[in-house]
Amino acid sequence: MKTEDMTVEEMALEERKFLHDISNQLVVAQGMSSFLQKALEKNDSVGEKEKERMEKICKSVKKIVDIVKERRSTLHSLNGDPKAD
Predict the structure, then answer these.
(1) Which of 6, 22, 41, 67 would bridge 10 by S-S if both were Cys, CB 3.0 to 4.6 A apart?
(2) Which domain holds residue 11?
């Protein structure tokens, strides 16, 4: 279906599906980066610069997760659905 033929509701549903797919991958990235960060913190042979970089990665992924959650919440509220996926 062409975008110009879609209703606003159909476009919102497509965006919700898209955000759901992104969320699934972000959960994996968040979990694995958290696991690696803990492992790096315990490893004395890893430099502080690398540990700082890993911390930045974890913070960035968390910010992206928060942005996606906020957008999903907005879409739910526009559709009259107060709950999140």
Answers:
(1) 6
(2) 3-78
Q: Check: CB of residue 55 under 8 Å from CB of residue 46.
A: no
C-alpha span between 80 and 47 (Å, rounded): 50
pTM for the whole structure? 0.77
Predicted confidence at residue 75, as pLDDT, reads: 83
Three-state secondary structure of 69-85: HHHHHHHHHHCCCCCCC
For 63-82, how does the pLDDT look when each residue is reduced to its tens digit (9 = 90+)?
999 999 999 888 888 766 65
Looking at the structure of the chain, the number of domains it has is 1
Q: Does the CA dihedral 56-58-61-66 come out positive or negative?
A: negative
Spatial neighbors of 41 by CB under 8 A, at least 6 apart, are 51
